Structures are given as C-alpha cells and as structure tokens.
Amino acid sequence: MKNKKSKLYDSLFLSSRDDIASNVAICDISMTLDNSEVDKYSNKLANYLKTENLSKGDVVAILAEKSSYSIIAVFAIMKIGATFLILDKEDSNKRNSFKLNETKSKLLISDFKFRNNANDLVKDCKIKKLIINQESNCKDKIISDFSVNILKASKKPIKQSVYDDDVAYILYTSGSTGMPKGAMITYGSIYPLIAYTVNRFNLNTSDKILFTVPMMFDVSIWDIFISRLSGAELVIPITISVIPSLLKQIEEKKITYFYAVSTLLILFSDTFSNIDSYNLKSVKTIIFGASICPSSTIFSLMKNFSSASFYNCYGTVETSVAQTFYRVTNSDHHYNISLPIGASFEGVNYHILKENGKLAKKNEVGEIIIDGPNIMKGYVNQPTLTNSVIKDAPKKSGLKNKVYFTGDLARIDNHGQSIVIGRKDDQIKSGSKRIELDEIQLTVNNHENVLEVAVIAIPDPILENKIKALVVLKKNCQLKSNDIHNYCKASLPPYMVPHLIEIVKKIPKNRSGKIDRKLILQNTINSSESIFIETSRKKLRKVTPGEQYNGTKNNILSERLVYLTELDSSGLSEIYEYSKEPMFYRFMEYNCHQSKEDTNLYIKSLINKTKKVYPDFEAMYWYIRLIPSGKIIGTI
What we know:
The protein has 18 helices and 29 strands. The strands form six sheets. A nine-stranded mixed beta sheet has the order 2-1-10-9-11-12-13-14-15. Strands 6-5-3-4-7-8-18 form a seven-stranded mixed beta sheet, sandwiched between helices. Strands 16, 17, 19, 20 and 21 form a five-stranded antiparallel beta sheet that branches. A hairpin with a 4-residue loop joins strand 28 and strand 29. The chain is of the alpha/beta class and 636 residues long.
C-alpha cells in the first residue's frame, strides 16, 4: 500500500492561515498569542532545532506544564518532521530516563520549573537539553524567555515532506513488565479523529476550547490539534483544582467546547461548586471519557449546561485517543449506571468479541477489538508485545483485517448499544490513568526484604479505583507499611503508589495456587482505614485529634475541592505532613511536597490564583480523619 502524504501535517502547517493571522490561537494566564505569533515562534524554534542537527525521524522529548511554551515546542518539533515524546512530570527520573533511552531521544526540551529534573536526565541519558522559558528581563513576548541563539533563528517557515506512516508522537502507558510501554502514533493514525471532531462538532474560528487535561494525557494532543485545524482559540485555565474558578472562566471566556474526565464532571455536579450561579450557556459541546462516569452525574449537569450536547467517548492510547461517541439525551434515563459508548466514526470500526472467537450479540459480553487506520504503529522496541495486541481476528469472527485487542470488556444491551463493564486483564483506571497492577506488584517485589506481594483495585466513586498492596515480608524482617510506602514513592509515579499497604503473614490463593484477588477485595471492603481531608464552610466547633467525628459524607474533600486562605504555622505543618499521602496530593494538582517551603509556596500560589478570579472567597476549616473509624488525626 502506497504511503500517502500526511493530510494532518499539510493542514496544520502548510495550509495558508493568513485570513486568521490576527485571531487568538492560545490564551493562558501569562500571555495571549495570535496565529501569526504562534507560527513565528514555532518557526524560530524549529529552525533552531535544525541548527542542532535535528531532523525528520528524530525523537525530541518535552518535560513541561501545559502552556503556550509547550504547545509551541510541539509544533516546532512537528514542523521539522521529528517525533515528540511527552514525559510525565510525575514519573521518577529512572522511568523518564528509560523512555529517553528506549526512544533514543536526541534532545530534551524542559520548562524552567523542571530544570533540575532536566539536568539529572541529561546526565543519565547523555543528551542535549533546552530550557524554553527561563526567567528573563527581555520584553519580547515569549521568545524573550528562550536562549539568545533561538532569538537569532530564522522565522522562515519550514516545508517538510511528512507521510501518513511517519510517527507524530510517542506516549507511554503502564506496562506489565515492570517498565512502561511506548505507543507510536503516526500522522495517519491520529488524523481521522482530528478531522472527524472538527467536522462533527462544527468547530471554527468562533469557538473557544478549554484545555482541561495535563500534557502527558493523550487528550491534550487531541485538543491541541483540533484547535489548530479549526482555527479555534485554545484556552488554558488558571487551575482546574478550584472548581468555582474553573466555572467562572468558562462563563467569562465564553467557552464553547471542552473535554472532561469523569472526576471533573463529578466535582462540577457537587452542590459545593454552586454551579447554578454561573451562566454556562456558551458551551455547545462537552466530551467526557477516560473512565466510566455515573449517568446520574450527566443528567444532573444537562440542566446546568442547558445549551450543550454531552458525548460519552471511548478509546485507548494505542488507537489514537478516541474511536466512539454517544450523544446522551433525556430519553437515556434507563441507563441508571453506565452510558453506552456509541458508534465509531467513518473508516474506524469496533466489535465485541466473545471468548469463543465469535462476535457478541445482544445480552452477550466480550472484548472490544478495534479495526481501522487509527491503530498505533506499535510499541517502541517491543515487537512481541505489539504482535500480542495487534493481530488477525479469529476466523469465526468473519473479520479479515488485523485488529487491536483492547482488553476492555463490554456488553451489548437490549437496545444494541455497547456498555463498557471492566477489564479483561489486571489493568485498571485510577484518577483517569491506566495502570497495570502487575507493574506495581513487580516493583514492590523488587524490595530486598519483600517475599510476596498482591496488588488489588478497590472501587472508588471518585477515582474509579484505589490501589491496595498486601505484602508478605521475609523472615525476621521488621519493615513497617510506611517503609514500603516510601519505597513505592521512590520507585513509582504518584498515581501508581498504593493508597493502602498492609503487612500480612499470608496472601490468599485460589485452588490453582494463584493469588485470589476477588477474595482479597471481599476482605478489604469496609475494613481498611484510609485518609480523607475534610472541610466545613463554617467553623462550628473545634475538633481535636483522637476524637470521633460524626459529620456527614458530604464533607469529604474527595468529593470537592476547596478555596484556600492564609494558614498559620501549625496549619502549614499539617498540610506538609499530609501532602505526603496520595489521597491528599492527588487532589492538590498532583504535587507531593519535598519541604515545608514547597508547601508554603504552593498554598500561596493557589491563594493568588483564586483571588484573581474569585476575590471574595470564604475561608475554610480543615481537618483530617480516618475512614471508616472516624478518628480525627489532625486539624488545620
């Protein structure tokens, strides 16, 4: 089959944009850039990369927050025909070094915030680095923060021949071998989704797209590409952790389109957000996915976003973000738990395959398999693993093409709609991240004093799953669960660190001698302690560590995010100590504080962000307690 020139590349970078040159392209807290400025700066960076002997096919890594800088870096890398690799800022240097080495990355582009991480990675991997937003007194809008060499670079457009089979980007996901696996997504793989999205939702220069997800999440690439292709403005919010602030931005910026993970929609629907006080009629389209969202949440939000259409989407990193869409309507109330994933778009197909190799019919369950040009090229340097998930469908299915086996299980209901019901293997979702339980298990097992480990997922209404590890220690070992927790924090990204760790003498097994995860889960539910940070709008009375709390479930912080105000020294100490707990920093923009100074700076930054958009916010009273005993272990 002939390798065609990439329509995506040509549409993004070679088509004339003169008619929208002055239209705003990117808006974030620090600056607003129009299309001509985005092209000017990305051309300069692209030409600079060429002077560093980077060319088509090379891999360039990015370690940065979502910002105008990081988006310009993505465009610059693509303009020279290179492949961009988004590094996860939560990952350890060990894991990011693995990614850099496996992909043979030639350059690491980092923002100033992660300069120390970048320095360590450069030493480990022996590659060049580029800090793209250094502190500078130069008044030029964005390039002022680049090095002097980039300032001198040409702004002349680069014309590169890019084809459908060329790799546009690489994203890593959790792997069952103890290290992550990198999915290579080509221009031809991602283009069908980008073109479909722009056309299906009629995106154009009058639209404003809210950029809600982190850079390392594949949806971020989706948002970046559709805003560029349609000429829509991409709005980077000040924060997504203060819900009223985010809703206020949607109202003031007149956002028309956004993607939301289920957790965000749940927080929107919580009464604490005061969503009824905002005018959200500008929103036309809301796409949600990444994890199963309760149907009740969507039906509730349909009243608040009265002008918006809600679409449940389904997809995987390996199949270029999303493949199916289902528009939710008021006639869907019979779906009282999960919503259908809907139909795939033109050129892409999915099927439900039973264990016997035949396609599922109504009221039958099977694995979702995907057929189409959107399937990845493969995993980096892992042909065996690639061939285990991209292969010929069973003859009994009647399908003739190679398909991608997702591992997701779905049921076809009486209406012929597909409902995702879980995973075939032990990969789970927690906080919108796909996680291999075996990877965590292997990591903990590598501890020199650990004899055996079992890792399970515990259903959670907000994260979808929390992670628990049962650990059997070697004879005469005196390790505590906190020691294992610290080891995990040093070896795994925060979202993979078990929320609960229990030292046990024996791990339950089934008759075949395998770990009985179902029995462990059954024994765990309603018996384990876990930390929650709670808040009350009014300080009704002082609570003290050790007493039993008799409040209502509605006070749990995991169901909302709170405004912050100035803290005294004891309050600061409390936040620092509990910032070490995954259930705390998971809701604090994924920051695990290394010192009290980190905590102090972080609190101040949130206060300042909040004051800019919500000047009259109310102070909150915090306390920390254990679930389910209700014992209070700290106050703020």
